[in-house]
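User: These chains co-purify. Model them together.
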Amino acid sequence: MPRTAPVSDWSSDFDVLDPRYVADPFGIWDDLRTTCPIAHTERRGSTWLPTRYGDVTAMAHDIEHFSSRKVAVIPMGSGDEGDRQLEYGLPPISSDPPLHTWTRRLLLPWFSHQRVETYVPLTRQLCRGLLDQVVDNGHADAAVDYAQQIPVRVIARILGVSSEMSDAFTGWVRDVLEFADDEVRRTHGADQLLTYFHSQLDLRRREPGDDLLSELLAAEVDGAPLDDGIVLGMAALVLIAGVDTTWSAIGSSLWHLAMHPEDQKRLVAEPALMPTATEELLRAFAPVTMARVVTGDLEYQGCPMKEGDKVLMNFPAANRDPEVFDRPDAVVLDRALNRHVAFGSGIHRCAGSNLARMELRVALEEWLGAIPSFALEQRKEIEWAGGQVRGPRVLPVVFP
Amino acid sequence: MKIRIDPDKCQGHARCYALAPELFAVDDYGQASVLVDEVPPALVDKATLAIANCPEYAIESVGD
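Assistant: Joint model of the two components:
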């Protein structure tokens, strides 16, 4: 993975891939919030990093000045990010209205609260199967053996593709998101993913099923079927957005619990607290940062933003803003006032948020059901991924 | 207490539904709606909680 020069000034030369930032960004955000609440860097192109809740949410709502046509936090090395393989990008996430609006409406029912409830038995069964394999060992990698394995299989079911492809999907999505700074790896992952979905679209056209891909192929908008490029982009989006993200949230939550036996005990004793607790874990460890593109020169809070600059929608930092959250760096499982923006804010609110919440809740319930007491394995290192999606990739834990 | 959702502000986070399913419904597209004309006294706390947790500030209590 390409290395970048260490950061000495976070306000004018930040780097979201700096190992210190990836491992522990919270103190950096705290400093920036009081000294330079919107930081800047020229690394990988001119990019701004807001750290206050008010700024992040205001910019997320201002779709006129901050476009979603490029949402990658780490742009392609060449500077020309226009994805040659996907004419329409990944709608709706990388689109502005009107394309955003109608593609989003096609996806939302698949992730409605009602629909997500029907995925609960599958998710529970998956979690139990994974736990059966480790529970007698006394140790596990909570990221690799558990968190990483869950969302990809649920997404495979929704897309109607084989769960035997899960390891391949995981690899491609990591190439695209986690190793985005490595152009060879990123391009390879994207090529593999799109080639696979191309073949799946051909298959579904011949033999439609009751899955999302088949429905998108059968859909009509204004009396015409969808362009293949749009179907491909939407399918790729569902996979890319539905795997790393929730896996990271599950992993970070287990990391926190591994270090806080009092929280383990409380969740075991008070299962009704779980919905509130998952919101708090999502607030504290929001995995996702998205980018926006400045559509024309403007001054925002004194920052001279130029057309084409990137702005990082730093939802994780917004969730730690002391202006909005009391004791923001404490995980308070019964936090009652929690207007967090882990799933974004405005028209691009994560379309899969109901699914993510359900997966996180079920994954924690099942883990604590099988392994009610666990701790970090002292001698082993934890590895974090960062950039677009932050979460533990290696998380060794022990349990009696 | 009466409550109202601004449909232009609601983005489908569904926090209101999770906190107070007696008071809110959410459709297939995430759009939330209020189920009651008047919030029963026993549910005022839940309504207040839903208002305070909406990330879009889309719910408000309406004065008499």
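Residues 34 and 52 of chain A are 9 Å apart (CA to CA).
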